[in-house]
Amino acid sequence: MYTPGPVNLLGLNAGLNGQAKTSLGFFIGVGLAMLTLFLLFGWAGAAWVRGDMLAVVGAVGCGYILYLAIQIARSSIDLNRVREAPRVLQFRDGLIMQLCNPKAMLATLPIATIQFPAAGIHGVNLLFWSLGLAVLAFGAPGSYALMGAVVGQRLENPRLLKGFSLSMAALLVWVAITIGYEHVWLPLASGGF
After folding, report:
1. In what helix (H) or strand (E) does residue 153 lie, and over which residues does it extend?
2. Which of 8, 33, 26 is nearest to 105 (CA)?
3. How far apart are CA 28 and CA 174, in angstroms?
4. pTM for this structure?
5. Which of 20, 42, 37, 41 is nearest to 139 (CA)?
6. Which of 79, 97, 114, 128 is the most buried (most CB within 10 A)?
7. Is 40 in contact with 104 (CB distance < 8 Å)?
8. 153 vs 79, 106, 143, CA distance in Å?
9. What is residue 85's three-state secondary structure?
């Protein structure tokens, strides 16, 4: 959950732009998405997950990641913060992005369908474990935002901040391309769809 992926990179960018507090809804959306995935996969099991479904969800997720990358690249940077602020990430953004993030599904599926049953976690215990993991998922982009806020306070050159935002946008594009290749193109090319 804490590796640099699209959700965490957006958290970092929010922190750099002084939006760590206003992006709390985004972090909550990420946590709720993970809770939803853990509970769905935990209760429904692997029977619900079809290979063709993952490719479609992956394609939607890639499109959304690219949309957010464009928004970050187009945002302007001003250390005085008197300009039009970049789009604030909201609850909906975190929820949709994490629900469509193949990395989230690939992380939750084996935990919920293999590790939970092997450890005897089911029923009410499934809810408690899923809540705990959802809190960790909330903390991942939150910690990146905090790191961005600390770094952002030390940067005094608007060009450096703009360059960093463009770098974050480029990394998001790279993540979208990687996810698209691994979780959409390869399954389609191998006839798994």
Report:
1. helix 124-154
2. 33
3. 25
4. 0.69
5. 20
6. 97
7. no
8. 9, 35, 16
9. coil
Give the ranges where 5-101 is alpha helix by DSSP (H).
6-16, 24-44, 51-74, 91-99
Containing 177, the helix (H) or strand (E) segment is helix 158-179
> What one-character DSSP code corresponds to residue 20?
T
Tokens representing 33 are 């998405």
What's the pLDDT tens digit per position in 54-70?
677 678 778 877 887 88
Tokens of 158: 């608007």
Question: Sign (positive/negative) of CA torsion 57, 58, 64, 67?
Answer: negative
Mean pLDDT of all residues belonging to the chain: 81
Residue 79: how many other CB atoms lie within 10 Å: 15
Please name the amino acid found at residue 121. I
Mean pLDDT, each 10-residue run in order, the chain (193 residues):
78 87 95 94 67 70 80 67 65 92 78 78 90 95 91 73 80 85 84 61
Contact 187, 54 (CB under 8 A): yes
Between vectors from CA 108 to CA 123 and to CA 26, what angle results, nearest 5°? 105
CA-based angle 93:156:14, to the nearest 5? Answer: 10
Distance of CA 40 to the CA centre of its chain: 18
Q: DSSP letter string over 93-114? A: HHHHHHHT-HHHHHHHHHIIII
